Amino acid sequence: MNHRIFAGASAAGLLLCAGVRFASATLITLSDSNSVARFKTQSQDGPVPGMNYWSIDGGNQLANQWFWYRIGETGPERSIDTLTPTAVHVGNAGFGGSNNQLSVDYAGDRFRLTLTCTLMGGSPGSGTADISEMIRIDNTSASPLAFHLFQYSDFDLNSLAAGDLVRIRGGNTAQQSKALFFAQETVATPRPSHIQAALSPAIYTLLTDGAASILNDDPGPCSGAVEYTFQWDANIAPGGTFIIATDKRIEGVPEPASLAALAIASAFCLMSRRRR
To answer: What is the set of domains in the chain, with CATH numbers?
Structure first.
């Protein structure tokens, strides 16, 4: 859904090799094997900042994914692109010859946020690719920092908004499917404080209504034009650090076990609607 404003991690993949540093950037493209991902890291870059394109074997699978934050218990939430970017690095993480890693440092009021994204493509024609993310928040003040971070995700599998099925399992793993496409995102650490799966634009509206938001912990399943979000609530000590690591993977053909589980969830969703 193009009107929205939004955007998994191994330690070995978080070191930029042969990196290029930019004072600012308008549109950043990462590529690796069969996959390309694009990012807009600043609000002035256009109406849809964040990761707004992820193609695998030539087909885009993503509308938007990005991060929103709030300090304290009163709103509003703001997307991280409204912060001041102090450094943007693009380079190769050692998986091939192309630039497949992005790291952006943002300066905020009493904190610094660093986002690192690493793209790992699959073999050409495999329909598979992976993106890992690490988000680091440093409290630069002398007082505790009540920090709330939201990761908003809106995948449009097979380049279509409608017809997707999403649910969140175990409080930390989002699964989304459509026909022969399957996406899974897992929070490696720490476990989210809250989750929500919903039909679009429910979560987008929640994050942009000017009030403090708390996700409702509804794991789904939801079927249609769907979206999902993870929320972390952290009280960061003076001079302390809070780190989040996630990994997302798309496959052109889901594994049989995943496909069966999602088919059961879809049937349950349809039965519930009929009862209503």
So the answer is: 11-275 (2.70.98.40)
